[in-house]
């Protein structure tokens, strides 16, 4: 289940990315969905049958990450060993981002406690 909220169209697109980043910093669900969307996009690109057109080595990962309003680059095989000077991760510890949904946050805290 994915609750939806109507968002008004943005007139200035440059204003949109900072708003998305602040939404990701305020709610772990938004942060995780951005990461999952980025990973899915890159994996779909890498596994596409028409690799003459969809060349993973031509993909601009930094711009793509900015477009998904990522706070940091995910750890995934396709990014291993690559540097992204055009992408600046946030200085915030992303593990400290909590869910706005109190039940999900309670579950997350339980899981973190079990892992310790």
TrEMBL record:
Domain of life: Eukaryota
Database matches in InterPro entries: SPB4-like_CTE
GO MF terms, alphabetically ordered: helicase activity; hydrolase activity
Domain ATP-dependent rRNA helicase SPB4-like C-terminal extension, residue spans: 15-78
Keywords of this entry: ATP-binding, Helicase, Hydrolase, Nucleotide-binding
Official protein name in the record: DDX55 helicase
């Amino acid at each position: 289940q994915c609750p939806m909220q109507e968002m008004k169209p943005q007139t200035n697109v440059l204003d949109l990315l900072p708003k998305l980043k602040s939404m990701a910093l305020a709610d772990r669900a938004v942060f995780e969905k951005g990461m999952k969307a980025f990973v899915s996009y890159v994996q779909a690109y890498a596994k596409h049958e028409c690799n003459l057109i969809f060349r993973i080595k031509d993909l601009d990962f930094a711009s793509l990450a900015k477009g998904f309003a990522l706070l940091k680059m995910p750890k995934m095989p396709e990014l291993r060993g690559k540097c992204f000077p055009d992408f600046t991760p946030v200085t915030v510890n992303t593990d400290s981002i909590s869910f706005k949904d109190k039940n999900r946050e309670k579950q997350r805290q339980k899981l973190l406690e079990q892992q310790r």
